[in-house]
Amino acid sequence: MNKSILEKPAILVLTGASGAGKTTLALKLGQLTIAGVASINCDRVKIEFPESGDPSDYQAAILKYWISHVRDDKGQIELAVLDTQIRPHRAREALSHAKVAYSEIVLVDCDPVKRNARLRGERGQPELATAQMDCWAAYLRGQADAMGLPIIDTSEDPVERSLETLVELVRNLRDRAAA
Hints:
Blueprint: E1 10-15, H1 22-31, E2 37-41, H2 55-71, E3 79-83, H3 88-97, E4 103-109, H4 112-120, H5 131-147, E5 151-153, H6 159-178
Parallel strand pairs: 1-3, 1-4, 2-3, 4-5
Helix pairs in contact: 1-6, 2-3
C-alpha cells in the first residue's frame, strides 16, 4: 500500500438532513461501546467560516477537522463514525484529500412527513421543518443514489433496526480495514 495513505482510523461518514435520525443513530451506536469505535457529532465544534462563503466549504472544513482530531487520538480509535450534514461528494473529496484508506459514506434518510413531524415534535425545531430542508433531503438522496451509497431509511423502522444496519456497516468497514 502507498505509504502516504493512512490506514487508521477508518472513517464512516453519516450524512442526512435534519430530523432524518443520524444523530440518534450515532448516539445509540456510542452507547453500545464497541471497542475501538468512536461516534462523534461533528456539529459540536465551531470553526471559522471559510472565506469562500460556500456552505459546502464549511462542511468540508468541519469534516477535515474531525478527521484530523480522530487521527491525533494516539491509535485508540480504529473506526470513527462522524455525524454531519455534508454533501456526499464533498465528503468523498475530504476523505481523499486526507488520504483515508478505509471509508464509507452513508446517507440516513427519512420520509419528509415523518422527518418534519420529528422536527416539529420531539426535536422542538419547527423552524427546520421547511421546504428548503425537504429540498436538501432530496438533494442528498439524489447524490447518494447517484454515488451508490448505502442508505439507512429511518421512516418506518424502529430505531433498533436502523441501528442494526449501522452496526453491520461499521463492522464491515472495520473488517475491511483490518484485513
